[in-house]
């Protein structure tokens, strides 16, 4: 069933979408780079433990590293080839981490290794969760949080509603849009696994009105026998944030400091869902993902299926970029991270690559004092007071920020910085303040 | 390929493209029709007062920035707003040296002493005007009738009064509609008030043009429209109640709306972003308090006009309103089930 929902969350912003250049382009397979570089820390939690040696030949889909504890996932080989070395590799955050250098065999058929399939009919919820972990699946929306850990319902709680997040509110990105149009069967198969794993009684697929075609397409695939519905919500950033999406679809608020399960819901990204539906029946691991490569600096814009570990420099060479590129973002332009080193690799959490050249960077160097215009207050989806928080941050009143002004609820969506006429880097202030508050807390405990 | 240096910055990497400068510049544009009309009504006299007040504010801001070894903040246009606003609140024949002094006080005491743009507790223009009112009570209540035949040929000699000499009051001085009502019981026609064919401060006269500027700012989202709406509605309703009780004793609500500095104050002064509350309900309360104070001062106070003091008092309590009225933070005051 397709329903048009006019209700949404409070506040929020409308940044220019810029999705039209890529949302009509089908997903295309990317070639293997001559050297693939795989960091072992691609997810939130403990890095994977390497189980291969330098010089070893590996098959596509083979496990290169296994999970180290519950909050960890294994890493699979994206190609058949030879392990050239195991050494430090640069990452997006600037830190170095252990990584695997893999040289694919150019003449290999690149057939994918199959593992133990997880049978939807007979598998228990625990077996499905284990299967999801073994497939190396993490949140593909960008957070890269191990999906099985998110799906594990805590003792004493229960899940009623599974929400499939097809919102993709970040400007420029169209990966989820293409996945919904091209992989409906994988998505529905994934939903079946997820419903069984969580015990959810119904599923809502949430899609923004700028992807009406995807919503209608998915709704047309519904048989009516399963409790799955598609809901279209008005376009507004940051609707893809779990809490905002739950409010838009269910009219409920997740308690401050709580999780979606506190309102009996679990939210999973639509591309992650498709991956689960595709990999689990074959017991395979994740080796590639869909990435939107776009922005004014890119020549061959599009949605590409790129092997995990492909070096960013190789990707940019393949699609072609302007001479004058000045900024490259991994993820969308609202919450993505600016790249300072093109030698980093595509990881599981990379949802997009946006390239700007000098002309498009219209950042004003001039920061004015806060004039209390209230634009940020009317933009914050959590109804925080960024103006006041910003002033408190300047005075280093971090404890007051956390205790009286709910600093720790901020999820850094960037709406406040986006609207600020004084160009105050509010999100950066809050990021810093949050880490200081966290440090102080851990010291006191 | 990739010869360029990569710039790194923190998210978000997109900005809306507004700036303090754009907002301030638009406020200036919005005030220009009312300012131009006052020049039309009062001639070169009003023009000189407006130019002097603006120059004085800009100069003071520039000098103070230089003295404190900071980059000059004149380019953010906020000093121009203060100057124009101050000029619009003064009688068109106000001695220029007093006007200049008002500008110096507005910027130095009203703005710089508090820490500059963004930190002022009160609207700086009103601080300047309040000091002038205390220091020169006669000059600031000496009005001059508009549409004098010689307004574009001669300049009133009181403008050039030497400092600390008794100002020469020259020409025909007319009572403002509010003082005429308060002290003589004379009611001015509302249409004359709305279109500005009355005596008063340079910018007190054309309610319609001021409203037009306000509508422009509200549409462009450069002004919180709730503030003027709340003030005007409160004044209208409160004075309406009194008028209904005894129309012979109290002025009509329409007269209240269109007389004196109410329009100028409600649209351009009370809306100073820095000195007004930040939430929707906060500004409505703020407007209601200012509106109530205006009616109270006008009806029972010793002065014919109360807009300035009402707004200054409103400014003073605005931080407290922000402490009192906040949005409920998402997910709070809910029990986790």
From TrEMBL, chain A:
Q: What does this protein do?
A: Part of a membrane-bound complex that couples electron transfer with translocation of ions across the membrane.
**EC number(s)?**
7.-.-.-
The free-text note explaining how the cofactor binds reads: Binds 2 [4Fe-4S] clusters per subunit.
* Subcellular location as annotated: Cell membrane
- List the cofactors: [4Fe-4S] cluster
Class of this enzyme: translocase
Which segment of the chain is annotated as a signal peptide? none
What is the name of the gene encoding this protein?
Answer: rsxC
Protein residues bound to [4Fe-4S] cluster 1: 370, 373, 376, 420
* Binding-site positions, [4Fe-4S] cluster 2: 380, 410, 413, 416
Q: Which PANTHER family match?
A: ION-TRANSLOCATING OXIDOREDUCTASE COMPLEX SUBUNIT C (PTHR43034:SF2)
User: Is the keyword Membrane assigned to this protein?
Assistant: yes
The ranges of region (Disordered) come to: 1-24
Q: What's its membrane topology?
A: Peripheral membrane protein
Know the name of this protein? Ion-translocating oxidoreductase complex subunit C
* Keywords for this protein: 4Fe-4S, Cell membrane, Electron transport, Iron, Iron-sulfur, Membrane, Metal-binding, Repeat, Translocase, Transport
Q: Which domain of life is it from?
A: Bacteria
Q: How does it assemble?
A: The complex is composed of six subunits: RnfA, RnfB, RnfC, RnfD, RnfE and RnfG.
Q: Per its UniProt record, what PROSITE patterns does this chain match?
A: 4FE4S_FER_1 (PS00198), 4FE4S_FER_2 (PS51379)
Similarity section: Belongs to the 4Fe4S bacterial-type ferredoxin family. RnfC subfamily.
4Fe-4S ferredoxin-type domain residues are 363-389, 401-430
Automatic annotation (TrEMBL), chain B:
Keywords per UniProt: Cell membrane, Electron transport, Flavoprotein, FMN, Membrane, Phosphoprotein, Translocase, Transmembrane, Transmembrane helix, Transport
TM spans (from-to): 34-60, 96-114, 126-144, 193-218, 225-245, 251-271, 283-301
E.C. numbers:
7.-.-.-
Task: Give the required cofactors.
Answer: FMN
Membrane protein topology class: Multi-pass membrane protein
Description of how the protein assembles with itself and partners: The complex is composed of six subunits: RnfA, RnfB, RnfC, RnfD, RnfE and RnfG.
Its job: Part of a membrane-bound complex that couples electron transfer with translocation of ions across the membrane.
Q: Which HAMAP family match?
A: RsxD_RnfD
Put simply, this protein is called Ion-translocating oxidoreductase complex subunit D
Q: What is the lineage of its organism?
A: Bacteria, Pseudomonadati, Bacteroidota, Cytophagia, Cytophagales
Gene name, Swiss-Prot/TrEMBL: rnfD
């Amino acid at each position: 069933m397709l329903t048009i929902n006019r209700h949404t969350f409070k506040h929020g912003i409308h940044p220019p979408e810029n999705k039209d250049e890529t949302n009509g382009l089908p997903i295309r397979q990317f070639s293997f780079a001559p050297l693939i570089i795989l960091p072992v820390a691609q997810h939130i939690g403990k890095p994977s433990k390497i189980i291969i040696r330098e010089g070893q030949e590996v098959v596509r889909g083979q496990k290169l590293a296994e999970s180290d504890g519950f909050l960890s996932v294994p890493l699979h080989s994206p190609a058949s080839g030879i392990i050239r070395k195991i050494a430090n590799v640069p990452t997006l955050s600037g830190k170095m981490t252990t990584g695997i250098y893999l040289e694919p065999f150019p003449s290999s058929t690149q057939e994918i290794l199959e593992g133990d399939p997880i049978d939807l009919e007979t598998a228990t919820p625990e077996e499905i969760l284990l299967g999801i972990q073994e497939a190396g699946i993490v949140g593909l929306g960008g957070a890269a949080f191990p999906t099985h850990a998110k799906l594990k319902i805590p003792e004493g709680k229960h899940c009623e509603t599974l929400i499939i997040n097809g919102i993709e509110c970040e400007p420029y990105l169209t990966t989820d849009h293409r996945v919904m149009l091209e992989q409906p069967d994988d998505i529905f198969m994934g939903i079946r696994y997820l419903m069984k794993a969580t015990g959810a009684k119904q599923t809502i697929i949430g899609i923004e009105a700028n992807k009406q075609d995807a919503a209608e397409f998915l709704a047309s695939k519904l048989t009516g026998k399963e409790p799955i519905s598609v809901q279209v919500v008005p376009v507004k950033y940051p609707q893809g944030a779990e809490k905002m999406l739950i409010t838009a679809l269910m009219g409920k608020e997740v308690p401050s400091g709580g999780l979606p399960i506190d309102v009996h819901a679990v939210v999973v990204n639509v591309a992650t869902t498709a991956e689960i539906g595709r990999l689990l029946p074959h017991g395979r691991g994740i080796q590639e993902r869909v990435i939107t490569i776009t922005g004014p600096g890119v020549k061959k814009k599009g949605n590409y299926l790129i092997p995990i570990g492909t070096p960013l420099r190789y990707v940019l060479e393949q699609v072609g970029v302007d001479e004058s590129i000045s900024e490259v973002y991994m993820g969308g332009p609202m919450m993505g991270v600016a790249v300072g080193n093109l030698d980093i690799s595509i990881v599981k959490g990379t949802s997009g690559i946006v390239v700007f050249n000098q002309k498009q960077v219209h950042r004003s160097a001039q920061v004015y004092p806060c004039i209390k215009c209230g634009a940020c207050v009317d933009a914050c989806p959590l109804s925080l007071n960024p103006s006041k928080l910003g002033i408190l941050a300047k005075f280093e009143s971090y404890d007051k920020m956390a205790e009286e002004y709910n600093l720790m609820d901020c999820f850094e969506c960037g709406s406040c910085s986006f609207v600020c006429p004084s160009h105050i880097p509010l999100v950066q202030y809050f990021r810093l303040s949050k880490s200081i508050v966290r440090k102080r807390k851990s010291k006191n405990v | 390929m990739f010869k360029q240096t990569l710039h790194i910055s923190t998210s978000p990497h997109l900005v809306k493209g507004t700036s303090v400068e754009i907002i301030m510049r638009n406020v200036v544009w919005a005030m220009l029709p009312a300012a131009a009309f006052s020049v039309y009504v009062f001639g070169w006299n009003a023009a000189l007062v407006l130019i002097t007040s603006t120059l004085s504010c800009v100069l003071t801001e520039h000098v103070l920035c230089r003295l404190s070894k900071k980059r000059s903040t004149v380019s953010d246009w906020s000093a121009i707003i203060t100057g124009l606003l101050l000029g619009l609140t003064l009688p068109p024949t106000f001695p220029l040296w007093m006007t200049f002094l008002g500008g110096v006080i507005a910027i130095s005491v009203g703005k710089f002493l508090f820490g500059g743009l963004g930190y002022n507790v009160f609207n700086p223009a009103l601080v300047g005007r309040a000091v002038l009112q205390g220091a020169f009570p006669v000059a600031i209540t000496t009005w001059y009738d508009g549409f004098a035949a010689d307004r574009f040929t001669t300049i009133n000699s009181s403008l050039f009064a030497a400092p600390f000499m008794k100002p020469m009051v020259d020409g025909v001085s007319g009572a403002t509609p509010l003082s005429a009502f308060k002290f003589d019981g004379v009611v001015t026609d509302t249409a004359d008030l709305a279109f500005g064919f009355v005596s008063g401060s340079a910018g007190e006269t054309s309610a319609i043009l001021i409203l037009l500027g306000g509508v422009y700012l509200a549409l462009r989202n450069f002004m919180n429209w709730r503030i003027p709406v709340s003030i005007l509605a409160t004044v209208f309703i409160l004075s309406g109640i009194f008028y209904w009780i005894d129309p012979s004793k109290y002025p009509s609500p329409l007269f209240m709306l269109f007389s004196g500095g109410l329009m100028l104050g409600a649209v351009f002064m009370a809306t100073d972003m820095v000195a007004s509350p930040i939430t929707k309900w906060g500004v409505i309360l703020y407007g209601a308090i200012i509106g109530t104070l205006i009616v109270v001062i006008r009806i029972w106070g010793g002065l014919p006009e109360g807009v300035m003091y009402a707004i200054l008092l409103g400014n003073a309590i605005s931080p407290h309103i922000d402490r009192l009225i906040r949005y409920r933070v998402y997910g709070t005051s809910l029990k986790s089930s």
